[in-house]
Amino acid sequence: MDAGSCNGCEIEIASIFSPTYDAERFGIRLEASPRHCDGLLVTGPVTRNMAAPLRKTFDAVPQPRVVVAVGDCARDCGVFRGAYGVEGAVSDVVPVDLEIPGCPPDPAAIVRALRGLAGT
Ligand code: SF4
Q1: What is the distance in A from the centroid of ligand 1 to the CA of 110?
Q2: For the stretch 42-65, what's the b/e string if a residue is b when 16 or more beta carbons lie within 10 angstroms of its beta carbon?
Q3: How many domains does the chain have?
Q4: Cα(64) to centroid of ligand 1, in Å?
Q5: Inside any domain, residue 12
Q6: Which tens digits make up the pLDDT trace of 27-76?
Q7: Does 106 reside within a domain?
Q8: Residue 111's domain is classified under what CATH number?
Q9: Which residue, of 25, 27, 71, 79, is most buried by count of CB atoms within 10 Å of its CB?
């Protein structure tokens, strides 16, 4: 879920499903509906407009569930810290299980982190 990112992190997340990284071979797949997910990848600082949708989306993911904060903005608001439209980091809104640092994180680091979660 993009909670307010610049889309840089999304580009790297999308690239993990390219032939170069091929995350699906490790059982990692993107799902359109949170009701079909095991976890939530969240990017960006959480903007004021996206705080409530993030909480609702989190509630829609069946338990047990994990939340992964992808990128420096998700971890601590990054370059958007203190901006008027920013509510806070992802962990200020929903519980976070794993953080992946970087602006944006390297696709290999995203795959490595998700493989650690999936145990693959
Ligand atoms: S961490 Fe960097 S690439 Fe990702 S949303 Fe923030 S500014 Fe954009």
Answers
A1: 14
A2: bbbbbbeebbeebeebbeebeeeb
A3: 1
A4: 28
A5: yes
A6: 999 999 999 999 999 999 999 999 999 999 999 999 999 999 999 999 99
A7: yes
A8: 3.40.50.12280
A9: 71
Q: What ranges in 6-71 are assigned the alpha helix state H?
A: 8-15, 48-60
Range of the domain at 13: 8-118
Q: Give residue ranges with CB within 6 A of ligand 1.
A: 5-6, 8-9, 43-44, 71-73, 78-79, 103-104
Using 50, 70 and 90 to split pLDDT, how confident is the model at 120?
A: confident
* 92 part of a folded domain: yes
What are 109's two structure tokens?
């680091």
In a domain, 104, yes or no: yes
Number of C-alpha atoms within 13 angstroms, CB side, residue 92? 18
The pTM is what? 0.95
